Amino acid sequence: MKRREKQIIERAERVKRRERQRNYSDKDDDFFDSLPDSLLIHILSYLPTRDSLITSTLSRRWRHLWTLIPFDFFKSNDLPTAVVVNLNQGSAVNTMDFHPSQQTFLLAGTNIGDITIWEVGRRERLVSQNFNVWDVEACSMALQALLASDYTASVNRVMWSPDGALFGVAYLKHIVQIYSYHGGNDLQNHLEIDVHVGKVSDLGLSHPNRQLCIITCGEDKNIKVWDIVTGNKLYTFEGHEAPVYSVCPHHEKNFILSVNINGKIRAWLYDNMGSRVVYDAPGQSCMTMAYSADRTRLFSCGTSEEGESYLAVWNQNKILGHGRCYILTTIAAEGGLPASPCIRFNKEGILLTVSTRENGIKILANADGLQLLRSIENCAVDNSRG
């Protein structure tokens, strides 16, 4: 009888313990649910990469929080030097861009007009799209004539919007296409514009006056700004004496920098009043421009007709210093690279993508990048088993 009573008492105590644990767990859930995203992201920043990624399985709210964790490039162990992924694109890659928040989503454009979105962690081709003009009749007669003789167009530039919901594609022939993308294979046509006479050299996406716009430049020596919703032209900037090679809009301040093939750099405000300043790139050479992460410095680089390469750093419209480019380090990348490969870092600087001579893409990683890719692989395996 005493043994029976003892068992009943022990069973009752176990039930009470489980109930207390359940109550504490519910309180913890309520506590974390009450915290703002900014504080949760700050907490996640102290976790190892794998642990912060695993939190994406907790609930819908947690799914993308880990992608917003700030990353300090200089705390990363080293530059990405280890080849960890090889992808077969199938045609020569001209341009690539990593997604601004989905760290392993890579957008690629090729010499035959194909665009592809890769999930490099799973080596999966999420989206593949061949060159196609959506509305030929709406195009200029010049473009229609070109398409009638040769219905192909190389991709010159691809670029994600700042929030990653849209991306733009600039083609060799006249047009820019904007797609909306919401993950998986959910790719939708958004906007198609016949923007320039001849080649579209470059495009940018920016928020002048808090309105997302497309900035384009091309062989016709002009820079143009377009409403991304309606496709209406908002501004045309004229003044370059040679075809414009590259544009670089500032994402916070309302101005655009552009450079032509002769290395003449101009700055424009959104007012159709002409360029405010004009600079000559060092060595009269400039191929592209990019801002530093804090948007305080502008980098320009290029190679002159004499074959000399230059790198310039600009600050508040004043040149800080320039000179010839010197090799800081070399990465073999296991060979197979063309003479001028297309390269791109992801936002955190832990992955580096480079095009190959055999129509492929190599992904290089440092220790942090390798950990990230392995985490994604492990999550994919766990999901397949579940």
UniProtKB/TrEMBL annotation:
Matches recorded under CDD domains: F-box_AtFBL13-like (cd22160)
InterPro entries on file: F-box-like_dom_sf, F-box_AtFBL13-like, F-box_dom, Topless_fam, WD40/YVTN_repeat-like_dom_sf, WD40_repeat_CS, WD40_repeat_dom_sf, WD40_rpt
Domain of life: Eukaryota
Pfam families, per database record: F-box, WD40
One record GO biological process: regulation of DNA-templated transcription
PROSITE patterns the UniProt entry points to: FBOX (PS50181), WD_REPEATS_1 (PS00678), WD_REPEATS_2 (PS50082)
Residue ranges constituting the F-box domain according to the UniProt record: 29-77
WD repeat spans: 214-236, 237-268
Protein name (Swiss-Prot/TrEMBL): F-box domain-containing protein
UniProt organism field: Castanea mollissima (Chinese chestnut)
